[in-house]
Amino acid sequence: MIQPFTPEPIRFVAEDGTPVQPLPERFTPALLRELHALMLRAREFDRKLITLLRQGRTTFYAQSSGMEATQVGLARSIRVGHDWVWPYYRDHTLGLAMGVPMAELLSQCLGTNSDPSRGRQMPHHFAAQAQNFVSISSSIASQVPPAAGNAMAQKYLGVDEITVCTFGDGATSEGDWHAGLNMAGAAKAPAMFVCENNQWAISTSIREQTASETIHIKAKAYGMPGYYVDGNDIVAVMEVCAQVAGQIRAGEGPALVECLTYRVGSHSNADADAEKHYRTREEVEEWLGRDPITRVEKLLEKLGHPVSAEERADLIAQTHREVDEQVLKAEATGQPDWRIIFEDVYADLPGHLRDQEAFLRAEQTAQAGQGGRA
Amino acid sequence: MTATQERHTDAAATRTINLIQAVTETIAEEMERDSRVVLFGEDVGARGGVFMATAGLQERFGPRRVFDTPLSEASIVGAAVGMAVRGLRPIAEIQFADYMGPGFDQIISQAAKIRYRSGGQFTAPLVIRTPSGGGVKGGHHHSQSPESYYTHTPGLKVVMPSTPYDAKGLLRSAVRGEDPVIFFEPKRLYRASKGEVPAHDYVVKFGEAAVRREGTDLSLIGYGGVMPDLEKAADALAAEGVSVEVIDLRSLVPWDKDRVLASVEKTGRAVLVSEAPRISNFMGEVAYVIQEQVFDSLLAPVGQVAGFDTPYPYVQDKVYLPGANRIVAACVRALNY
Ligand SMILES: Cc1ncc(C[n+]2csc(CCOP(=O)(O)OP(=O)(O)O)c2C)c(N)n1
Predict the structure, then answer these.
(1) Which residues on adjacent β-strands are paired with residue B221?
(2) Chain B contacts of A360, Cβ < 8 Å?
(3) What percent of chain A has pLDDT over 70?
(4) Closest-approach residue (CA) in chain B for A170
(5) Average of pLDDT values for A199-225?
(6) Quick one: angle between helices A292-302 and A29-54, nearest 10?
(7) How far apart (Å, rounded) are the C-alpha atoms in residues B53 and B190?
(8) Helix, strand, coil fractions of chain A, as percent rounded to 5
(9) pLDDT at res. B12
(10) pLDDT band of A370, cuts 50, 70, 90
(11) What was the pLDDT predicted at A371?
(12) What sequence ranges are listed for the domain Transketolase-like pyrimidine-binding (chain B) (predicted)?
């Protein structure tokens, strides 16, 4: 059984791919290859989305390069479509690994008619009902109290689902974060809080963020166990999260898991020059050396099941093809028209919005008549 | 004297800058002038702010006076209140007006009320600067215009410049004043709004609207990010022979009732423009006062152009915003009434 509150991050695989403790049996070469493929796919998705940004086809993107083990490991330790997830805006890798169709994700990023969220949110803020993947809110930590409530409902309903709530290290400073953990702790709700500690909140380092040595230690204050995990070791993330999920499902109450990782890219496209402003190239290089994908490749090599160069290249090419195809398909569905402004504000359109809709319809019709718009 | 008039008298010693430069310069000048002024918020330090409004200030004034905070608006606003009570002059940046939510309680319960509830024994002279408004493809969490939450709270002063001249003058007033000020910066004008500023130290007092152009047929009244659209609408109407008076409120609490009423008395028609949702929009108050106090002068009902009562959408954000066409249409309705 994995112990909470370890002084060092729990890990199974060292940076050079050597197991530092026996791998749990289920981590067969086949599973490790599958996880590797998922991580590589997410990384290439990042690359392609940066290209789309440069081409002006989308306007915002938050990379998760470097954090793949945390998100894929988490995705593969819960019951997808059964458990509920309250994610944050850097979680597309989590979504992809949970089986949210790439087409949906891209449609959201492009704001096309094929976006299930109707183009209302800025890019990279998707929602996926089939996966119980609740709509991402930009407002940091605002998902934490609702996640506690979701878990309380699960307890009330007597279902064996759990709630997963993710956030960055910065989020742990917000009052909502503390309110949510405290509530879940007091209610003994089945919630797993997962901190994707990539050590920077835009330009604010974890050292400026909190005087607390670690994030997981804060769990003590809320009466729940806190686990400290090497977030770049997919075996560790998956093993810890799966065990913790099991405990929570068994009725032991909430837990906090801190995955120590690093975002190797910029915060978002609005911050494309991180190294110029606030962090050093050396730090980035150091973390590139702990890359989660390379680590699994080295492990597989040591186990005698290396991923060949061709396999790797094929996987990459396949992802690129898939993104290209899905982008074209999504774009072909066009942009949602002005009506989306009024739909989904309420269950029914109240009178004042009916008036405003009629006003806009008249305006748009008149402008279309003149062959142009404002 | 209006801003426009003042600018002309200083023509010799002016420079042309944009709105965000005006903000940066003014903070620097005020920090230079008064060592009690400190600046903090998320990413304002090394990064210089997500819009670069505070670029270079940490280098210049050191990390004691310009610093990054933990990611918590409640902490930022609450700490600003505490510092102000203890004698500093904090300027706090909230990264986007949309993210004042977590700090809302500190703003309305602490900043706005400490003078009143203590009988004036304690006060919180602080400035909360925050980019607001749409037109930047930001979706609802980076585009909202939440000024009415704050104009509805007694004890706060609420201002929004639309020109570099006003940004400098209003920000100086804010920093030097004795009350908590919510200083909204229309982010789509940060670089788009350019204008002359005098080299000398001047302030723009709160509660003094600027007459951007004089006219006799209709008063077009707005503030912040929509002002360029008011100007465009006035140009379009001028081409049709309509003489429009364009007024920029500049500050909402307090607002310049006298100038607005005098203008409407002269023109007989008013169209009020803002991009915030319409229900409980601050302009509703302006409309009410106009009909209450100069009803007899009105030749048409007071027109209002506002955002729709929906969250701000990502796609169709240009349609959501009241552009010049929609403003012209509202003016034409008033003129044809
Ligand atoms: C309430 C709120 N305040 C500020 C912001 C602006 N903002 C967006 S991302 C970010 C940093 C978040 O850092 P962290 O929680 O560590 O997540 P990471 O981006 O590092 O994954 C900030 C300050 C916001 N979105 N919401």
Answers:
(1) B247, B272
(2) 308, 319
(3) 98
(4) B71
(5) 97
(6) 150
(7) 9
(8) 50, 10, 40
(9) 66
(10) confident
(11) 62
(12) 17-192
Which residues lie closer than 8 Å to B144 by C-beta, 6 or more apart? B97, B98, B132, B133, B134, B276, B312
Size of chain B in residues:
337
C-alpha–C-alpha distance, residues B199 and A173, integer Å: 41
Distance CA A162, CA A160 (A): 7
Using DSSP's 3-state secondary structure scheme, residue A370 falls into coil
> Is A330:A58 a contact under the CB 8 Å cutoff?
no
pLDDT value, residue B10: 53
- Is residue A10 within 8 Å of A230, Cβ to Cβ? yes
Burial of residue A284 (number of CB atoms within 10 Å: 0-12, 13-18, 19+) = middle
* Residues 6+ positions from B236 with CB-CB distance below 8 Å: B324, B328
Q: What is the pLDDT of residue A197?
A: 98
Q: Cβ(B233)–Cβ(B220) under 8 Å?
A: yes
Of A125, A139, A202, the CB nearest to B101: A139
Structure tokens, A55: 């081409």
Contact A139 B50 (CB under 8 A): no
Closest to B115 (Cα-Cα) out of B156, B159, B73, B158: B156
Structure confidence at residue A368 (pLDDT): 86
Structure tokens at A112: 């096309």
Per-residue model confidence as pLDDT tens digits over A7-64: 999 999 999 999 999 999 999 999 999 999 999 999 999 999 999 999 999 999 999 9
pLDDT of res. B1? 38
pLDDT at position A374 over 70:
no
At residue A100, the pLDDT reads 98
- Low-confidence stretches of chain B (pLDDT beneath 50): 1-5
DSSP letter assigned to residue B337: -
Which atom of ligand 1 has the smallest separation from the CA of B101?
1
Q: Considering only CB atoms, which chain A residues are within 8 Å of B42?
A: 201-202, 204
Residues 6+ away with beta carbon under 8 Å from B192: B18, B19, B228
* Whole-angstrom distance, CA of residue B309 vs CA of residue A341: 9
Between CA A358 and CA A374 the distance in angstroms is 17
Cα torsion A272, A275, A277, A280 to 10°: value is: 160
How far apart, in Å, are the Cα atoms of A163 and each of A166, A219, A250, B90?
A: 10, 17, 13, 40
Q: Are B225 and B133 in contact (CB under 8 A)?
A: yes
Look at residue A307 in the predicted model and tell me its pLDDT: 97
Strands (E), B187-255: 194-198, 210-213, 218-222, 244-248, 251-253
The ipTM estimated for the assembled molecules is 0.93
What's the confidence (pLDDT) of residue A23? 97
What's the sign of the alpha-carbon dihedral B337, B225, B235, B296? positive
Does the beta-carbon distance from A139 to B315 stay under 8 Å? no
Tell me which of A113, A117, A174 to substitute to probe the interface with B (most B C-beta atoms closer than 10 Å): A174
CB contact under 8 Å between B71 and A337, yes or no, is no
Integer CA distances (angstroms), A12 to A199, A215, B102, B153, in order: 21, 21, 39, 55
A203 lines ligand 1 (CB under 6 A): no
For residue A94, is pLDDT > 60?
yes
Kindly state the tokens that stand for A3. Answer: 């112990």
Whose CA is closest to A189, among A236, A232, A95, A253? A253
**Sheet of A226-230, strands arranged across:** A84-86, A163-168, A191-197, A255-260, A226-230
Residues 6+ apart with CB under 8 A from A326: A102, A103, A106, A107
Neighbours of A55 (CB within 10 A): 9
Report the alpha-carbon distance of residue A359 to residue B325 in Å, rounded: 13
Which region holds residue B241: left if phi is over 0, alpha if psi is between -120 and 50, else beta? left
pTM for the model: 0.95
